[in-house]
Amino acid sequence: MTASDLRQKFLQGETTALNFNHPNIVKLVGIAVQSYPIMIVMEYVPGGSLLNHLRKSKNALPVMKLLKMSLDAASGMSYLEMKNCIHRDLAARNCLITDDGQLKIADFGMSREEHIYELSDKRGQIPIKWTAPEALRTGRYTIKCDVWSYGVLLWEIFTFGDVPYRNWSNQQTRDMIESGYRLPAPDLMPLWLRTLMNRCWSEEPEKRPSFADISSEIKLPNANSFTPNLRRSADAHQQNKSTNNNDNNNHTTDNNNTNSSIDSSSNDNNPMNSSSNNSRLAISVKDKRIREN
């Protein structure tokens, strides 16, 4: 594949995102292609990445807000599902959060508007610990692979941004998943959501729920019905945290995130993590210097 072909493939994916219009999807405003690097103008989301938000704000995040984030992500992905778009890199690091707590799905650098997408080069970017086992085996992606990744996203949300399979290498993770291992449910996660999360991790893709089904199953209870059981869980969780201040729960995270993918791109340069509140747009400079294979 030539450099021109790669450039065209990248622009095709970004152009697709220009047509997206949903409150839980980051809006792509425009693309400047006249020179390198290619400039992408996107909606400015002042709260920054969901991953950082979870880690910084965990002591102030009630379970109700975690449920709302889960529903926002499912709603955004349901929209992409309706558009026959496969994201391929759904994770907390690729979601943004507004000042009022609304989650928006971002980073469509790996997305494709297809029912099935097959990697042309198996050496490409693959976030191992978020990727469905069938995609790792075959390089073929469907929307059901995104459903698997959504299950990992749920786990991230309810662990306040912990690293999945923290102490395992990529190969160990693959081997354990193939043998039937699944991440344990977080303490704060309601039982019904644990069941839904595990359905997202069904070995057979056709047994995983659609995002439309997920969106309909996640319901936000009112404060009165929500409080008794989950608040006790939240209080117990906070008590456990306070008695283990010297353990390894503090996230020294950047290296872990880097090790969680093969040749995965860093999100530290995401312009939407900017602290400026004066601008409503962020210019994402995606340096897509395309090289000959």
Describe the 3D structure.
With 293 residues, the protein is mainly alpha-helical. It has one domain: Transferase(Phosphotransferase), domain 1, CATH 1.10.510.10. The protein contains ten helices and seven strands. It has helices at residues 3-17, 50-57, 63-82, 133-138, 143-158, 170-178, 191-200, 211-217, 223-242, 253-259; strands spanning 28-32, 38-43, 95-97, 103-105, 117-118, 140-141, 281-286. The strands form three sheets. A three-stranded antiparallel beta sheet has the order 1-2-7, with helices on one face. Strands 3-4 form a two-stranded antiparallel sheet. A hairpin with a 5-residue loop joins strand 1 (28-32) and strand 2 (38-43). Residues 240-279 have a biased composition (Low complexity). The active site is at 89 (proton acceptor). It comes from Trichobilharzia regenti (Nasal bird schistosome). InterPro entries: Kinase-like_dom_sf, Non-receptor_tyrosine_kinases, Prot_kinase_dom, Ser-Thr/Tyr_kinase_cat_dom, Tyr_kinase_AS, Tyr_kinase_cat_dom.
